[in-house]
Write a structure and sequence with these properties.
This protein has 417 residues and is of the alpha/beta class. It folds into two domains: 2-215 and 398-415, Rossmann fold (3-Layer(aba) Sandwich); 226-396, Rossmann fold (3-Layer(aba) Sandwich), CATH 3.40.50.2000. It is built from 15 helices and 13 strands. The strands form two sheets. A seven-stranded parallel β-sheet has the order 3-2-1-4-5-6-7. The chain has a six-stranded parallel β-sheet with strand order 10-9-8-11-12-13, sandwiched between helices. The longest helix is centred in the first third of the chain and has 18 residues, at 53-70. The chain is globular, with a radius of gyration of 22 Å.
């Protein structure tokens, strides 16, 4: 059985990491899996890169240009939506022709257009589509937020600068309806929350929607000596280390403002002298000056081994995100024996069991976020939570279980051809 896993990037972004890990896991379990990407970052022989550089660049720029024009030549909202009006043809590639199953992941930003997706569906090969956000079940947005129009028909999109009855969201919704009707697609949501949202979508009416979580690399992400990890990364040897990490610290939906408000609260005043905030990413100087804690900025870690050591080194990972599906970061932290605190949003409550292996704070409630930080760092709670976090990860997201779910799905699809 040959599986072609298609994703825009090999290693950049949560979807890419999840798809890459699944590719490796399938090969370790005797399944011939190949990854097809636009952007390749490793030297793995199991990853093929598209060579149509000019076509790929044109597709990417043309899509952004059309969104820019529709938004009245304003940059606001330029990156919050995708319209899939341009892409590359993959059905003639040897990797596609040799595959028994086509497994799509995150295919935006000029990789696959809806027209190209239609060709994939009409090829006769079974198609699985793992949803890492809501884009497959909405028109153009990756996170619907409070909007429920995707449940009937998208229009007046709140993420466009000039929404109207037949705006871009209406047009793309119509095209998706036609595209999805061409052939069966098996949709896989990484979280039960996303599966439930997808089942509400008119686009996915009558479609098979499953829930299979991502997995992680247990040879890297596991409990280990905290002191050795701190020494390796040149972190303070004493005191509490609180970790905040994201690709773009300034991204509003990552919730940094809520974390900063929580850190300034009276609830955490007693912890200030013994706690250091560790930030992965770049934080502006004026932001750092307003935080009443020592700050250790690491920048961006490109090696998974360094990220694993970081989780092992800290006492708590806090993720105040306002939009999430099933974050790899929470999975990796818990696997490393690091309790997590996050808001009650998306798939986070499925990952963190409240006051069992971490703390789930009320959505957009900075005071409760502070309560969670204090609860996890309390000496009488921390060890219990850390052990429970590692146990939850090893049982729920282990490679054997997740890979078996996908292999069973592939075999069922091939059997029913």
């Amino acid at each position: 059985m040959r599986i072609l896993i298609v994703n825009t990037s090999e290693m950049t972004g949560g979807a890419a990491i999840a798809a890459s890990r699944l590719t490796c896991a399938l090969n370790r379990h005797g399944i011939k899996a190949q990854m097809l990407v636009r952007d390749k970052q490793s030297d793995r022989v199991t990853t093929s890169v598209l060579r149509q550089h000019r076509r790929l660049r044109f597709s990417f720029l043309w899509e952004r240009f059309c969104i820019w024009v529709a938004n009245g030549f304003r940059r606001k909202g330029l990156w919050s939506v995708d319209i899939a009006n341009a892409g590359v043809d993959i059905i003639q590639l040897p990797e596609f022709c040799e595959a028994d199953i086509i497994h799509l992941h995150w295919v935006n930003q000029g990789l696959l257009s809806l027209s190209q997706l239609k060709k994939v569906l009409q090829s006769g090969k079974p198609v699985v589509w793992t949803m890492h956000d809501m884009w497959p079940c909405t028109s153009i947005c990756h996170h619907a937020r409070d909007c429920e129009r995707y449940q009937t028909h998208c229009h007046h999109c709140p993420q466009l600068n000039y929404p109207c009855s037949k705006d871009l969201s209406w047009k793309v919704f119509e095209q998706k309806l036609r595209t999805y009707s061409c052939a069966p697609i098996t949709f896989v949501a990484c979280s039960q929350w996303l599966a439930a949202e997808a089942r509400k979508s008119r686009l996915l009416e009558g479609k098979t929607i499953l829930s299979i979580p991502n997995t992680y690399n247990s040879t890297l992400f596991h409990p280990a000596s905290q002191q050795e990890a701190r020494a390796r990364l040149h972190l303070p040897a004493k005191g509490n280390l609180l970790l905040f990490a994201c690709q773009k610290v300034t991204n509003e939906r990552k919730g940094l403002d809520y974390l900063l408000t929580a850190l300034k609260s009276e609830r955490l005043q007693a912890l200030r002298e013994e706690t250091t905030l560790v930030v992965v990413g770049q934080m502006a100087d004026h932001t750092a000056r307003n935080i009443p804690y020592p700050i250790h900025t690491i920048g961006y870690l490109t090696e998974e081994a360094d990220m694993a050591a970081l989780y092992q080194a800290v006492d708590l990972f806090v993720t105040p995100s306002l939009e999430e599906n099933l974050p790899n970061t929470i999975m990796e932290a818990m696997a490393s024996g690091t309790p997590c605190v996050g808001f009650h949003i998306g798939g986070i409550p499925e990952m963190i069991d409240h006051e069992v292996n971490g703390y789930v704070a009320r959505y957009q409630d900075a005071d409760d976020l502070a309560n969670g930080i204090a609860y996890v760092l309390a000496p009488e709670n921390h060890q219990r939570l850390a052990e429970a976090a590692a146990h939850k990860a090893s049982v729920t997201w282990n490679e054997e279980t997740v890979t078996r779910h996908y292999i069973d799905l592939y075999e069922t699809l091939i059997f029913n051809l």
